[in-house]
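Fold this complex.
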Amino acid sequence: MATIKEIAEMASVSRTTVSRVLNNSGYVSAEARKRVEKVIEETGYEPSIYAKSLRTKRTSVIGVILPTIKTETPSRIVTGLGSELAKHGYQILLANTNLDKEKEYEYLDLLKTRQVDGIVLLATNTDPKLIQKIKEINVPVVIVGQEAKGIMHVTYDDYHAARELTAFLIQKGHTQIAFIGVHEEDRAVGFLRKRGFLDEMTANGLNVELEWIQEGIFDIDSGKESMGKILKQSVNTPTATIAVTDRLAIGAMSYLKDKDIVIPDRMALVGFGASEISQYLEPALTTVDFQNEKAGEQAANQLLAKLNAQTYQEKIILDYRLLIRQSV
Amino acid sequence: MATIKEIAEMASVSRTTVSRVLNNSGYVSAEARKRVEKVIEETGYEPSIYAKSLRTKRTSVIGVILPTIKTETPSRIVTGLGSELAKHGYQILLANTNLDKEKEYEYLDLLKTRQVDGIVLLATNTDPKLIQKIKEINVPVVIVGQEAKGIMHVTYDDYHAARELTAFLIQKGHTQIAFIGVHEEDRAVGFLRKRGFLDEMTANGLNVELEWIQEGIFDIDSGKESMGKILKQSVNTPTATIAVTDRLAIGAMSYLKDKDIVIPDRMALVGFGASEISQYLEPALTTVDFQNEKAGEQAANQLLAKLNAQTYQEKIILDYRLLIRQSV
DNA sequence: ATTATGTGTGGAATCGATTCCATAATATAG
DNA sequence: CTATATTATGGAATCGATTCCACACATAAT
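Structure:
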């Protein structure tokens, strides 16, 4: 691999001039430029990005911290991020925590050490400690999926999506509605979606029995189990169930099918996330599309804007769409 | 951020000695080491990896080129890769082609420019041109999922898995078996799985009608469509269908349900890939588990072994397991 | 004719590490 | 008591770029 010095010699100019051609900066005569370009072309020379980064302190690498890459939401966000970043010559350095919260801290440090230009954090929580850490490392960070005071973020409108979904069920005549949620530590999915549901029920003067509210974790089996609990404990069985993710809904659906409870006749069912499979289920699942790719793109754009000292928004709340299908 | 020079001054030693402490190399007295370590501890000093890479030509970054991150197989492989690489202090630089074949070439170049220590390629084809390019760039590459002469690779035993799956259907009494495949350019999924199916049929003296063999692309709708074609065209309708991916099988299942064709009674159905959803389908899908995480781990380990000049295997073929469920 | 401005170029310092080499002090062998 | 390892340390070159600064020359303005 050639170096800038060799290119300079071959083109009979100084390293400085080669650098000017490379970066389109300063004054270079047409002839000198031509000679340098010719040599670069012929040798297939590529400047060492490590030497470059050492001087410029910029790496064109964005770190992405995510809880898992195996589920649809993060992988879609990463797809959106990747395509937008690639357009601007940035690469993604991946940091997968595998749901280990401690690793979030570790990776923030690691990515700083790796001197990434910015970090995208697909957060599952928004601990003050985490926020603190983010501010400490002094690297531009954008959080996707959770609101965070004082830190750039791109979120979904979880609260209103939940309200609207609930309103839709009520409008369809349901008055007894169950809810399968997740831990409220996850403010977006756990807290806000539940809040939206409860507020809408209250606004309509509807009561929610305690046993109708279950809390699971982020997997299919958990949805199955929760549905079981809802149906077992209730004196008044609900006629509809809201699950905060499609996977939980799929679990619930699996339970209902096992018990020959027909959807939507005896139990309506809705989810969140618009997973690919949701439309192929039997019956097709009513769900909320949060357009994760777009979230990734927006996060990328805001981060890049900040890096280039352009105007950016501290806070972006994305739109959602209800996908009404046969499960209601 | 402190530099090695400042650390050296603070510990009253030379940069050389600090470097020795950092890398555990050469002779350092106990006292000197202690002083240096203390200063490092106090300042939270982290050596610049760019300066380091510039000298050592090593980056501890592995590039991963993949066709998409949205589907289960690649995201599982990446999970396996990531966890194994992280153990050894390596990071993943992601390059998502979004199924654009041209980008595979581009990214090979880009990753070389980025001076990654090695590349993992989740290949969908094995063009001589691609192989040529890989050899050209002169960076250690391991291909996952496809066999490739002269290049390190980790593959599944697609051929025997397909034969065994076919044999299982035959053993269950099926003699008329349809097949939903993909383009043979994808040698592993398109060619080998089909070959395995056909060979096993022939070995059992069974005939396969031309219309029973359909070719789709990698999505659910395509499976649905293919199932439609199989059932529309046939005089002799098959009693079982093999789809080369679970998503194709899910599409086929969707079609069958629409037409009230009961699985497995009137049509048995099997897939490949052991997708998470497969066990929650109704009926649960019989499929082949290729243990993608393990493939990722193995790929990582072989690559690391090569990088560290340890013994490695040029070629690894992984085991598979038949997951027999209610769809047969 | 003199000064100011614009254009073009290269020398040399710099970024922050690693590593070769020289040197010195101490320990061990002959 | 010399000769030879062994241990410990630092100076200086190096990796491959960018960028400040000085300088030369041509042209335009005064």
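Residues 158-289 of chain A form a domain with the Rossmann fold fold (CATH 3.40.50.2300).
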